[in-house]
Amino acid sequence: xxxxxxxxxxxxxxxxxxxxxxxxxxxxxxxxxxxxxxxxxxxxxxxxxxxxxxxxxxxxxxxxxxxxxxxxxxxxxxxxxxxxxxxxxxxxxxxxxxxxxxxxxxxxxxxxxxxxxxxxxxxxxxxxxxxxxxxxxxxxxxxxxxxxxx
Length: 150
Fold this sequence. Notes:
This protein is α/β, with parallel strands linked by helices. The protein has helices spanning 17-30, 70-80, 95-107, 128-149, and strands at 4-10, 34-39, 48-53, 56-61, 85-90, 109-114. The protein has a single domain (4-149), classed as Rossmann fold.
């Protein structure tokens, strides 16, 4: 694999970035050909997981909040895990976007940006239509990872 990639879900606060990336982690853990190499302990709702997929290093880091450890988690993915693909989250502008660009520039990653689907009807949040959409997005991300690793 010649290129390294950061796949970043960027959206407003509370638009389902973490939930979508947690679905990605779930799907990767469920696949028998993937190996969960390391998971940061005691991280609360957010997760940082280092996988080996087809012999390549892939990190999923759900943390994308301003004034959080997001820059450190991205640094760990690039420097310590030597991830060829990092999947992460950020807000739409500001410090979290800058952290993604900083890691991309310093470590030679290409960035693929996407935005989650969002339902304005808060009554749907957490219910079947919203979760079905997030699962489809998570499946798409896993497919993109597989394609990039080929």
